[in-house]
């Protein structure tokens, strides 16, 4: 018997995990949960490995029918989740019974939420991961990169979960203004002084043009005056500036090389926060050095071992 049946979904409802690594030299991108922090907490709530397969729900539009009793967990955005018309808050585990309906209506706070099941949802590993990457036709329930759609069944075989309570103080504050740390890159010196001032002192607005490959920022025009570039490898969170001067941030499903000049790359924690921004939301960029960003990242990972 399956655990959940998909009654309704959008292309933004996908099976994700920590992503696939060790294959970028083949031109294969990593995929994986855009908000790895929320994914990790959803799995932590059930005692799962932090990167176990979850359902990433972006902006709502998903309805699931429960086929058996279980304990599930939810972390990330408040998408007005409801269990049989009863509100269901994120950052917690919850019990479901056979026949109940789990609905994700739409964003109230944040953009993406993550649904976890005991041991992680079952799906074949393709190049070491079940992460859905539609453009490359990889991952997902059948391995071909298809998002969830009506009629799909989701199952798991994990043991009874080690249900945990997440301390309220550790829940990311998605209502706070987004301040995204950026480690400056090799081409930073090619931008004129006014552009560099504006990049880190002006507000940016998240454009409606965006997907899991990348999102565009609207704001002051950045002027690059350096030499032309040969395409090179690009990391997740890279902030590229095309000729129109409006930067875009490359995300998990990005191409593996690119030739536009870069301001640098968002830290992993900043990438998770960006994943929770909705179109039209304002944000700021903050310059950060690599050493302090790495120390902050290690401190954050330590939280999962301390709680």
Tell me what the structure shows.
- By secondary structure, the protein is α+β, with helices and mostly antiparallel strands.
- The protein folds into two domains: 4-170, no CATH class; 178-306, Cyclophilin (Beta Barrel).
- Helix content is 14%, strand content 30%.
- The protein has helices at 36-44, 193-201, 268-274, 290-306, and strands at 4-8, 13-16, 54-58, 62-66, 70-78, 81-83, 86-87, 92-96, 101-104, 109-116, 153-154, 178-184, 204-210, 214-218, 232-233, 238-240, 248-250, 257-258, 262-266, 282-288.
- Strands 12-19-16-17-14-13-20 form a seven-stranded mixed beta barrel.
- The longest helix is centred in the C-terminal third of the chain and has 17 residues, at 290-306.
- It is globular, with a radius of gyration of 19 Å.
- This is Biotin-dependent carboxyltransferase family protein.
- It comes from Pseudomonas mangiferae.
- Pfam families: CT_A_B.
- GO terms for molecular function: ATP binding; hydrolase activity; transferase activity.
Uncertain residue ranges: none
Measured by DSSP, the beta-strand proportion falls in 25-35%
Computed CA radius of gyration, to the nearest angstrom: 19 Å
Query: What's the total count of β strands?
Result: 20
Largest sheet report: 7 strands, mixed, barrel
Secondary-structure class: alpha+beta
Strands of the largest sheet, in order across it? 12-19-16-17-14-13-20
Count of the separate structural domains:
2
* SSE series: EEHEEEEEEEEEEHEEEEEEEHEH
User: Mean pLDDT score, rounded?
Assistant: 94
Multimerization status: single chain
What would the principal axes of the Cα set say about the shape?
globular
Number of helix segments? 4
Helix content: 10-25%
Q: What's the N-to-C terminus distance?
A: 34 Å
């Amino acid at each position: 018997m399956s655990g959940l049946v998909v009654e309704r979904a959008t292309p933004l409802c996908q099976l994700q995990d920590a992503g696939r690594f060790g294959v970028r030299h083949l031109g294969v991108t990593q995929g994986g949960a855009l908000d790895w922090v929320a994914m990790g907490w959803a799995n932590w709530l059930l005692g799962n490995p932090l990167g176990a397969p979850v359902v990433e729900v972006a902006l709502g539009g998903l309805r699931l029918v429960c086929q058996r009793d279980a304990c599930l967990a939810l972390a990330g955005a408040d998408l007005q989740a409801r269990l049989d018309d009863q509100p269901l808050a994120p950052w917690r585990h919850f019990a479901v019974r056979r026949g109940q309906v789990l609905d994700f209506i739409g964003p109230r706070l944040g953009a993406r939420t993550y649904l976890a099941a005991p041991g992680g949802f079952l799906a074949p590993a393709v190049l070491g991961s079940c992460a859905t990457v539609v453009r490359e036709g990889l991952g997902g329930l059948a391995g071909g990169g298809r998002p969830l759609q009506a009629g799909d069944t989701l199952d798991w075989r994990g043991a009874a979960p080690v249900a945990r309570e997440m301390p309220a103080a550790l829940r990311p504050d998605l209502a706070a203004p987004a301040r995204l740390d950026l480690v400056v890159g090799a081409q930073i010196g090619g931008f004129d002084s006014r552009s560099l001032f504006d990049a880190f002192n002006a507000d940016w607005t998240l454009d409606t043009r965006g997907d899991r490959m990348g999102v565009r920022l609207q704001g002051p025009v950045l002027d690059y005056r350096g030499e032309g570039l040969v395409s090179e490898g690009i990391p997740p969170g890279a902030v590229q500036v095309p000729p129109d001067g409006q930067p875009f941030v490359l995300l998990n499903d990005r191409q593996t090389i690119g030739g536009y000049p870069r301001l640098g790359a968002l830290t992993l924690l900043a990438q998770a926060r960006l994943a929770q921004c909705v179109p039209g939301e304002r944000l700021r960029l903050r310059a950060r050095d690599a050493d302090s960003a790495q120390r902050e990242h290690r401190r954050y990972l330590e939280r999962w071992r301390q709680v």
